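Hey, does this match?
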Amino acid sequence: MDGAPLGVAGWRWMFAIGSLGALLTFLVRRGLPESPRWLESVGRTAEADAVTSRFEKAAEAEGWTPPRAPARPSSRRTPGLRSSRCRSGPSSVGRWPAAR
């Protein structure tokens, strides 16, 4: 193998350089937490709460303030909204009227 750097053939260098991306991804991935939504969906609620708390503490350390809790929804209907039984709602747009 004349002219091969460090006595290693060229195709092996390409293979080694290509694998560095996978190694870098593996190392970075180890430091990332699982998604709290995924943890909650598989029943790991305590871990989801811990991850969310860690995110909130980091954000508050950077000056973020949490939004106020939403007001409790009132039991009265909002004027102008149609009931769900109305035939001319968005679900009937573009459809032919039903045969009677």
Remarks:
- The chain has a mean pLDDT of 77.
- The radius of gyration is 29 Å.
